[in-house]
Specification:
Structural class: alpha/beta
CATH architecture of the largest domain: 3-Layer(aba) Sandwich
Strand content: 15-25%
Number of helices: 13
Oligomer: single chain
Number of domains: 2
Number of strands: 10
CATH superfamily of the largest domain: Periplasmic binding protein-like II
Helix content: 40-55%
Strand order of the largest sheet: 2-1-3-10-4
Length: about 325
């Protein structure tokens, strides 16, 4: 099974295999989730006895409803949600990570030569927000980390990303922050704009994680999570081992609305800049993001790693994948 891509035919062995249903609900469909899509297409989850299916609710916060009514075994999205909800509404436990870097880019009009982050002070920045608060949270954290007061910038961020992109190209604002894939696609179409900064190069952060309601976790769930992580770990390894040019056709099938050259370029950029590392949430990246969330007022103070993250399924998966490689 694949999302928005060609479905791979099951082998005779797979047809005979009894698979455990494993339904995932996700907040979006993004290139930074690529290893999951590769794991689906290449049968890495099926090898673990899991029949992984995915839905993307509208609006995105429907993922929480799917967890609450048990129609989904886990959710994929930003770790800021489990952090914000903890001790207020619901406890969620994060058990794996897919995106280790922020997949955003800053667009400006004209040439980006000589651009400095300090140039953005006293400017108007357009930021999409339809998929949640992550865009604004990360950008304002980046400003604070570089000793720039976020209040020195004016923001337009309560509109749809496509609408904001059109308005930016039409003359609204000074900068536009969107996902890297959309940014490169815009630059490919419009010679009057350029990419001033790719945030994938701005350090580790657990941008996209998998989580579930803490109270509902059982030994059976933990076992399924471990097997999911094995498949995902193999997906990450596969992407890191293959130059994007070598699977251009798959990228074209997965992202048909994006020029193939752009999809290849962004994928290799992500490969080279540690977008995908492993299924484990990095403790240092976690601490950095928690401080950003605290500074933004989403949490009273940064949470400790183990209060939100259970790394056991991911760690066990990595050990299993490593052992399998040694046998080969």
């Amino acid at each position: 099974m694949a999302i928005n891509g060609a479905i791979q035919p099951a082998s005779d062995a797979e047809k005979k295999q009894v698979l455990q249903p494993f339904h995932l609900t996700a907040t979006g469909y993004n290139l930074n989730y690529l290893p999951e899509y590769i794991a689906l297409r290449h049968g890495f989850f099926r090898e673990q006895g899991l029949d992984v299916t995915v839905n993307i609710p509208t609006p995105w916060d429907g993922v929480l409803d799917a967890l609450a009514d048990n129609s989904a075994i886990m959710a994929l999205g930003g770790i800021w949600v489990p952090s914000m909800y903890r001790d207020r509404v619901q406890h969620y436990t994060v058990f794996a990570q897919i995106a280790n870097r922020c997949p955003l880019a800053v667009l400006k009009r004209g040439s980006s030569e000589g651009f400095k982050l300090t140039d953005m002070a006293k400017s108007t920045v357009l930021m999409k927000s339809g998929g949640g608060a992550s865009v604004g949270l990360f950008f304002k954290m980046l400003l604070r980390e570089n000793n720039i007061d976020p209040r020195a910038v004016d923001y337009v961020q309560d509109l749809d990303g496509i609408m904001l992109g059109n308005l930016f190209q039409g003359g609204m604002g000074d900068y536009f922050i969107t996902d890297n894939l959309s940014a490169l696609a815009m630059v490919a179409r419009n010679p009057n704009v350029s990419i001033a900064m790719e945030m994938v190069a701005q350090g580790d952060i657990p941008w996209s994680v998998y989580y579930r309601e803490t109270a509902t976790i059982t030994p059976e769930i933990l076992d399924a999570q471990k097997r999911f992580c094995i498949g995902l770990e193999k997906g990450i390894d596969w992407v890191l081992e293959h130059d994007a040019e070598s699977f251009r056709d798959e990228l074209a099938e997965l992202f048909p609305s994006v020029p193939a050259d752009v999809a290849v370029s962004v994928t290799n950029d992500f490969r080279n800049n540690k977008m995908w590392t492993s299924t484990s949430v990095d403790p240092q990246g976690f601490a950095r993001w928690q401080q950003g969330l605290a500074d933004a007022g989403l949490v009273k103070e940064p949470f400790a790693y183990k209060s939100i993250v259970d790394d056991a399924p991911a760690a066990a998966a990595q050990a299993a994948v490593k052992a399998a490689k040694q046998v080969k």
